[in-house]
Input
Amino acid sequence: MWGGRGLEIDPDEAVQSAVRAIFARFAIEPSARAVLRWAQRSNVLMPIRARGIANAEVKWTRLGNVRLNNMLRNPVYAGIYVYGRHPTRKQLVGGEIRKVRTRLAEPKDWPVRIEGAHPAYLTWERFVKNQGKLRQNTSQRAGASQGAPREGLALLAGLALCGRCGRRMSVRYDRSSSRWQYSCYGDSSHGERLCWSVAGASIDRAVEKLFLQTMVPEELELSLAVEREVHGQADSRERTWQTRIEQARYEARRAERRYKAVDPDNRVVARTLEAEWEQRLRDLETVEQQYAEARRAHRVELSPLDRRRIRELARDLPAVWRASTTSAADKKAMLRLVIEAIALHPVDVPRRVTRVRVLWTAGAVNELELARPGRGEAHRHDPAVLERIRELAAAAAHDEEIARRLNVDGLRTGTGRPWTEALVRQTRSTKRIERVAPDRPRMHPLPHRHPDGRRYSVPGAMARFSVSKQVVHRWIRQGLVTATREDFGTHRNAYWFDIDDAIAARLTAWA
Output
């Protein structure tokens, strides 16, 4: 936001604070879309002034996608004067000569660039980093970029490179999204459209284990750094709100003075000024209500308990990593902070393995070798495991219960993966293992809430969020809710799960 007297920073502190808050948030968020979601959740408003009008009044509106992208891509916020970023050229289109407007994305291609031409909100180095992040967050077509961290389960999406041809590998999910592959396409040297592909779950587990073992920083230094970052964000948000409230109070006082200064006999003007005064008072009340709501929802102030919990989390990275509130996108963002790329290369001799080379941002390289089963080997389970499945199936255990008991006993599939309900069902079908179905009384519908008044059933979640049973089961598979199985009346192993306010907000957005 710039003033009306040329290229200078707006003198209004509330305007400056709002603009700086956006750039500060983009520095810690993985994408521009994440900044937009944060602004909407936090009720962050952005200032606008009418162009060409001296001393135009500041109006506050919600941040939109177009406004945000213009701010992040415009070099004027870095104090740079640029000319020729969007040149036009003549082109023959349909037999007619037309002017086509292009965009020069690289700063080295700009015809005119003058640094330090006017005051700036951010440095030129930060602006260049922002452009790099925006490019990386574009579509991954043809493997051109990493893409923004997304909610898919594949941990190495955007990081995995083909060890054969160097292309960026894409992710292919199966229909249930419980399994995925890293695939490389378009390598003409092999005479095929598909270069090669590999199952991703075991590779992700190995990289996750390496990451958690490697990232063991000085606990106290990390704790203090995290606390300073969170405290700094809270202070910045507090200052932004205080400047907005101060500005709203000033506008209300000015409208009051104008109303009291008018001649009472001039009723037309008096009524207009009185309406303006009332509007300014309503604006002040709205800003104060929004501030109070933001403090309740986002905890602007850090209490001693907050600081202690931050220190505890900073000392235990595995706990943060495995927490139910840490999404798949959050985990990918953590990896990208310290890992630059991961190369996957197939090795067939002397044994079938996948060679995994992890390139850290510091320049170090770690190499792993993981077994790569051939076609059909996924169903070659240990005979002892098959015998255990027969025993549990003969005892009328449900497929999910069988999978749970196999995992508790430390038994794995032929490829070393944990057992799931789908894998047990597939194995029973392949090996012709029948499950004994016991006689059961007539089942009554599950209540929406557990008798403890705290947990929800699947029908209860369906009713609360207006979704189907398949959607609720997908939430459970993807880890959006933590489910527990418990016998309830005639129902064996019925799903029950907690839904607090944070989880409810995430499920509502998902739905």
The longest strand covers residues 339-347. Residues 227 and 308 are 9 Å apart (CA to CA).
